[in-house]
Amino acid sequence: MGLTVTTDNKPVTVIRKDGVSQSGKAYTMYSLMYSFKNGEEWKNVFVDCAFKKGTDLANKSKINITNAFMTGSEFNGNTKPKIFVLDYEVVEGSQPAPAPNDNEWLNIPSGVDE
Questions:
Q1: Which of 5, 11, 8, 10 has its CA nearest to residue 94?
Q2: CA dihedral defined by 65, 3, 71, 1, rounded to 10 degrees?
Q3: Residue 93: pLDDT over 70
């Protein structure tokens, strides 16, 4: 399958890119950003990743990966690493609050004139 990956409760940042293909189909691509210090300088490494179908993470969300595997994919003769994330936990406070549903917008306190 590939190399098993976890982050051992050290959050990584999810970078989200939304786009539209030439045929007009919308898509979302994700990368994981790892930061580390090399001497006095901070470095960022970006690794392409994929989540289970239906996953919807906000850009710059922080997650702890609990189950994933790494594999390589070849494109134009170059092998590039890719992480397939199976299980993860979102770090509290790293995603924006969800928008209220339609019913919450219509709650008008009693005694208030419309």
A1: 11
A2: -110
A3: yes
